[in-house]
Design goal:
By secondary structure, the chain is an alpha+beta fold. It is built from three helices and 17 strands. Pfam families: Ig_3 (PF13927).
């Protein structure tokens, strides 16, 4: 009889052995002269099996942590368990001491003993802080005044990163729903400067910056041309006035008597640096 079995008896016939048959059995022999007792320990060997409790089908690792993939299997004798990444024909990633993004994927764990083997697939996801951040200005970081442009930010990371910005304050900014980009319509001087994007998740953050220039060269050129034009106009006006005044002194019909003491007479008889200017006067008949 099996110890703890709740009774005694003899096995008759044959039946299929199950794992529940393992244990300590007590054999008792009796006749009219007495009794002999002997105990026997029975072990039941069986092929391996791998269950969810000892080997979860989904794992979540963090980059930089020790690379370990425990997978417990049942069986007698105790199975030997190995796990290899599917589709990886090179050295198994589990050979690396710490988790990297290359560890992500599906692994096949095999438990083996003398009675057979069992297989179980395990999917591993690797979380990591934001990396490979790229920041670009479309169509270009050199923007003409009044033109439209956008600044886009992308980063890898698991969980998916969220995005934040530090940029020149202006009223013409429009952020995307996921905050991954910002659009600027009608660029002005207020939009020039440094645009910094920061990608963040629970494992860390990463930032990048780009300098945007708003080209106002044509405005300055027009202003300069306007200034030159104004100066030129003033100079021409002054020259024209001088010319007209000079010509007014040199041309005309004069009466000698009336011209005496007049500004015209003074003009006609002026001297410059000891060099006399001589003008002819046409006399009119009284």
């Amino acid at each position: 009889a099996r110890e703890g079995g709740g009774g005694t008896g003899r096995a008759r016939g044959s039946r299929t052995v199950s794992r529940a048959d393992a244990g300590r059995y007590v054999c008792r022999a009796t006749n009219k002269h007495g009794t002999a007792v002997r105990s026997v320990v029975v072990t039941v060997e069986y092929e391996p099996s791998i269950g969810e409790s000892g080997c979860p089908a989904r794992r979540l690792w963090v980059e930089g942590a020790p690379a370990e993939l425990p997978c417990a299997a049942s069986g007698n004798p105790l199975p030997h368990v190995t796990c290899n990444k599917l589709g990886d024909h090179q050295e198994p990633p589990l050979g690396s001491p710490n988790v990297t993004r290359a560890h992500a994927g599906t692994y096949q764990c095999r438990a083996t003993n003398s009675h057979g083997s069992a297989l179980r697939n395990v999917t591993v996801a690797v979380e990591y802080s934001p990396a490979a951040l790229t920041l670009r200005v479309l169509p270009s970081a050199n923007v003409s005044r009044g033109a439209s442009f956008s600044v886009e930010c992308r980063a890898e990371g698991l969980p998916t990163p969220t995005y934040g910005w530090a940029l020149p304050p202006a009223p013409n900014l429009r952020f995307a729903a996921d905050n991954r980009s910002v659009a600027i319509a009608g660029a002005a001087a207020a939009n020039r400067g440094l645009y910094t994007c920061t990608a963040t998740n629970r494992h860390g953050h990463r930032a990048g910056s780009v300098l945007v220039r708003v080209d106002e060269g044509w405005v300055v050129l027009l202003a300069s041309l306007g200034s030159v034009g104004a100066v030129t106009a003033v100079a021409l006006a002054a020259a024209g006035g001088y010319y007209l005044k000079s010509r007014a002194c040199k041309k005309g019909e004069y009466n000698v008597r009336d011209a005496e003491g007049s500004s015209e007479a003074a003009c006609l008889h002026r001297h410059h640096h000891d060099r006399a200017e001589v003008y002819g006067i046409q006399l009119t008949q009284p």
